[in-house]
Write a structure and sequence with these properties.
This protein is mostly helical. The chain is 58% helix and 5% strand. It has six helices and two strands, in the order ββαααααα. The chain has a two-stranded antiparallel sheet with strand order 1-2.
């Protein structure tokens, strides 16, 4: 019984694949075992080195969603000022805008302007 699958572009043998998997696992274990044995997970060793400065709280270093688009919003500041002025948060205003814009589009399409 042959375990080799031969195709026009090459071959595949699961036994050979397992041999290479075992070989690379042994190499990976040897590299892992040469690590620093004095490393302790739950000690001061896990803290980042910040040139002697105390580590800031997570809230101070956290990147907020608004910070991601800061450059985009800063470049279009004039446009956003207009949008914030007309943004009321009232659903009736949005429906009024929707009907008004729909009436203008309908007028343009039917009127042939």
């Amino acid at each position: 019984m042959s375990f080799t699958l031969t195709t026009p572009s090459g071959f595949w043998n699961p036994i050979l694949w397992l041999v290479f998997l075992a070989l690379f696992s042994i190499i990976a274990y040897l590299i892992y075992s040469r690590g620093n044995p004095s490393y302790k997970k739950d000690t001061e060793q896990i803290k980042p080195y910040l040139s002697g400065n105390p580590e800031p709280t997570k809230e101070k270093v956290q990147v907020k969603a608004g910070d991601i688009y800061w450059g985009f919003i800063e470049a279009l500041k004039g446009y956003y000022k207009v949008l914030q002025a007309i943004h009321t948060g009232d659903m009736r205003d949005y429906i009024l805008w929707y009907l008004g814009i729909g009436a203008i589009i309908t007028f343009i399409l039917i009127g042939g302007v």
